[in-house]
């Protein structure tokens, strides 16, 4: 893994850890570093500058329209519930929000419900 790719992924991993996403593991997807929940990839590095983030199609369209400087797709991702994020342009707070949303897309329903529930 290149140093640039490793450094970019470390930022993503660190933010996911700080968000407290349960049962998240580091792995690979399509030969690049990824974060997985219960064995399912929810984000992966496309290259050192770009993160692939799972995202509901309606949300993806809205986000790309609202801020195309951060969120985009290539023909490969058209019609697929994933979008691309420009890592150099996105701030940590926005990236953390996207990581949480992507985690929720792939986490088992019971686990996702527990993550957002207030303590009882």
TrEMBL record:
Cite the InterPro entries for this sequence: YjbR/MT2646/Rv2570-like (IPR058532)
Q: Which UniProt keywords apply?
A: DNA-binding
In terms of Pfam families, this protein maps to: YjbR
Keyword DNA-binding among record annotations:
yes
Instruction: Give an example GO molecular function.
Output: DNA binding
- Report what the protein is called: MmcQ/YjbR family DNA-binding protein
Q: What is the lineage of its organism?
A: Bacteria, Pseudomonadati, Pseudomonadota, Alphaproteobacteria, Hyphomicrobiales
């Amino acid at each position: 893994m290149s140093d640039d790719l490793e450094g970019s992924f470390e930022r993503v991993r660190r933010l996911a850890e700080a968000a407290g996403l349960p049962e998240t593991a580091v792995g690979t997807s399509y030969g690049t570093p990824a974060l997985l929940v219960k064995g399912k990839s929810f984000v992966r590095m496309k290259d050192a500058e770009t993160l692939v983030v799972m995202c509901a199609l309606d949300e993806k369209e809205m986000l790309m329209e609202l801020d195309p400087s951060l969120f985009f797709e290539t023909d490969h991702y058209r019609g697929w519930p994933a979008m691309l994020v420009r890592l150099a342009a996105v701030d940590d707070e926005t990236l953390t929000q996207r990581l949480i949303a992507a985690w929720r897309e792939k986490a088992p329903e019971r686990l996702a419900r527990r993550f957002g529930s207030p303590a009882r």
